[in-house]
Design brief:
- The complex is a heterodimer of chains A (about 350) and B (about 280).
- Chain A has about 350 residues and is mainly alpha-helical.
- Chain A contains 15 helices and two strands.
- The longest helix of chain A is centred in the last third of the chain and has 27 residues.
- Chain A is globular, with a radius of gyration of 22 Å.
- In chain B, helix 7 links the parallel strand 7 and strand 8.
- The chains are: A mainly alpha (about 350), B alpha/beta (about 280).
């Protein structure tokens, strides 16, 4: 096939092959670099600073996991969900009820939480038959239905009163009772899930997800079964939220439906937008920002949503690619990229 | 003559009251370049949508290598060896050139969602295989220098080539190119023509939807002409060029008792120079 000479590339543009090969996987390497930096910060800072920062770190870890799930769905595959908190809630209730009710060990409850949320996600994914905006509205409706079920099915969930007396985490006979223990368990989960998602992203299926998010017709034209993959990514994102949810009652020592309102779904969407949509690290950065900033605005609690609103507008106007996107751009300005033609 | 690779038998597609494709039959021989031409709105692109499976037919049969594929979903057709490009390039705007072409390798991969996350050796080999295929194809279309560039940095003509490379990554037996030369400069058009010839020499069959008459007449062994959704002619380029119905469809009727505009213009010009 190589006898062909196509006059489109001039000889001086031909690759210098060694530099070319090294630059080959720029995007994947960028993602791994961000992974290492963010995980290092998130592991070290809360443990080193301790106290309140440890608590903040524990909150961030939970929302970072959930936001990563949302990022894969919304940012990568373009399947907007307005009811993500519902899956967090399904995970939280599943884990708590299993642990408290039948004394299931934590790891089993964690797996069950992910599974239950994934099944619920698969059920919601059936709605993709609704086209465009109708699917998005239906995800909003799904979130509200789940919230209503949590508040009104009192015999199972305890309704508005919530669930108290969350049993401590126990894994293979070792109990994890302190906040440091909980933080470490959360961070292990976050690190593993984040790493798996980076791997997914730079593989056959992740590429197909991104293709669907960027141009559905083109993705179909190369033989990606779009509907199956859309359902797959919604199931995956929901399952990840369920896993995050399983940790929440252990941190709060209390479980009520008020952690899973449409408002919480919205905040997670703001997280991935402010952090940087379409980029996995954006989910983690956004989760950190939207957890830390309100803590310093305690005196203005009633204006919290106002602050979030302003942040969202400011980030969309000034940093349309989010904090991570802006940072990425800044780095590329100083580090000349190799192997770039045209 | 060998058995046709693609056959349309009385294929129709209706949009409400409009017959976008009306009872069209067409036979494409393997290892040939087949042109599908016609004035604007003739139903060429719709015909492509029907063959590639992007839209479903309202009637008739589509047959690939003797097997009816009329109701098949698009991904099954890609696996069977049909791939298409679009009139205006549909690419993945946030990816690098190589990533886009690797997306075209999708049907040749095995790893599923969990495989992509957990497999180590198998994933490494699959990614390396995809990467090698993409590199080879980009070399073939002449984009070796742009392999890691973000697609947004590429010119219109090069984007076309990326789209062709992506379609080739599915390893089609039958490649459908929708207005592949439109918007390209003459050098780029010649390059695309050369790519098409090389592919056919390698055993591929190509169907072109085209507006550029010279391009079509030079390349195609056989041409089918559509007008208002119906087939009005089918034959070799020279037959098509002299076909009364085709000339009428493109240029309108020659009207009796009217001085051609060309003569009027010439007369006016002469008048101007004499004065």
């Amino acid at each position: 096939m190589n006898e062909l000479s196509v006059p489109l590339s001039k000889p001086d543009e031909l690759p210098q092959s060694s530099g070319q090969r090294r630059a080959a996987n720029w995007m994947a390497r960028g993602d791994w670099l961000a992974f290492v930096v963010l995980m290092a910060l998130l592991w070290i800072l809360p443990l080193a600073l301790g106290g309140f920062y440890l608590y903040l770190g524990a909150v961030i870890a939970i929302y970072a996991i959930a936001a990563l799930g949302l990022q894969v769905m919304v940012g990568l595959a373009g399947q907007l969900s307005l009811g993500h908190a519902a899956f967090l809630g399904i995970g939280a209730y599943t884990a708590t009820l299993l642990e408290k009710g039948i004394g299931l060990p934590f790891l089993a409850a964690l797996a069950a939480a992910g599974l239950a949320a994934a099944v619920a996600g698969l059920v919601m994914a059936q709605l993709i038959r609704l086209s465009g905006i109708y699917f998005k509205i239906a995800t909003f409706g799904f979130g509200i239905v789940v919230y209503q079920a949590m508040t009104n099915w009192s015999s199972l969930t305890g309704g508005h009163v919530g669930v108290r007396g969350i049993p401590p985490i126990e894994i293979f006979g070792v109990s994890f009772t302190t906040r440091v223990d909980l933080f470490i368990l959360e961070m292990i989960t976050l690190t593993v899930i984040y790493a798996l998602l980076v791997r997914l992203c730079h593989g056959r299926v992740g590429r197909a997800f991104r293709a669907i998010g960027q141009n559905e017709a083109a993705a179909r034209s190369v033989g990606i079964p779009v509907n199956r993959y859309r359902m797959g990514v919604i199931t995956l994102g929901s399952g990840i939220a369920g896993i995050a949810g399983a940790f929440l009652p252990h941190l709060m020592r209390f479980l009520s439906p008020e952690s899973f309102t449409w408002y919480d779904s919205l905040i997670m969407l703001i997280m991935i937008t402010v952090g940087g949509i379409k980029m996995l690290p954006g989910a983690v950065v956004g989760a950190a920002l939207l957890t830390i900033i309100p803590e310093y605005l305690r005196d203005f609690t009633q204006y919290k949503m106002l602050v979030f609103g302003v942040m969202l507008i400011a980030s969309m106007a000034l940093l349309p690619e989010g904090v991570v996107g802006a940072f990425d751009r800044l780095i590329k300005r100083f580090v000349p990229r190799r192997g770039q033609g045209s | 003559m060998s058995a046709p690779i693609l056959e349309l038998r009385n294929v129709s597609r209706r949009f409400g009251g409009l017959m976008a494709v009306n009872d069209v039959s067409m036979t494409v021989q393997p290892r040939t370049i087949h042109g599908l031409i016609g004035p604007n709105g003739a139903g060429k692109s719709t015909a492509f949508d029907l063959i590639s499976g992007l839209q479903s037919t309202s009637g008739g049969d589509i047959i690939l290598n003797g097997a009816p594929i009329t109701g098949w979903p698009i991904e099954a057709r890609v696996i069977a060896g049909i791939c298409r490009t679009f009139q205006t390039s549909k690419l993945f705007e946030e990816m690098t050139v190589k990533d886009i072409v690797m997306t075209g390798c999708h049907v040749h991969g095995r790893l599923g969602m969990f495989g992509s996350m957990f497999a180590v050796g198998r994933k490494f080999r699959e990614e390396r295989d995809f990467s090698e295929r993409a590199t080879r194809l980009l070399e073939f279309v002449g984009l070796s220098a742009e392999i890691d560039a973000p697609i947004a940095d590429l010119s219109y003509g090069k984007r076309r080539l990326v789209e062709i490379a992506r379609a080739l990554a599915t390893e089609p037996k039958l490649l459908l190119l929708d207005e592949v030369s439109s918007g390209l400069n003459p050098v780029e058009t010649a390059a695309v023509g050369q790519i098409i010839r090389t592919l056919v020499a390698g055993g591929m069959t190509i169907v072109l939807v085209e507006h550029d008459m010279k391009f079509v007449m030079d390349l195609c062994e056989r041409i089918t002409v559509l007008n208002f959704g119906s087939r009005i002619a089918d034959g070799t380029p020279s037959e098509i060029a002299n076909d009364e119905a085709v000339i009428t469809a493109y240029l309108g009727h020659a009207q009796e008792n009217r001085t051609p505009r060309r003569d009027l213009r010439r007369a006016a010009l002469q008048g101007a120079t004499e004065a």
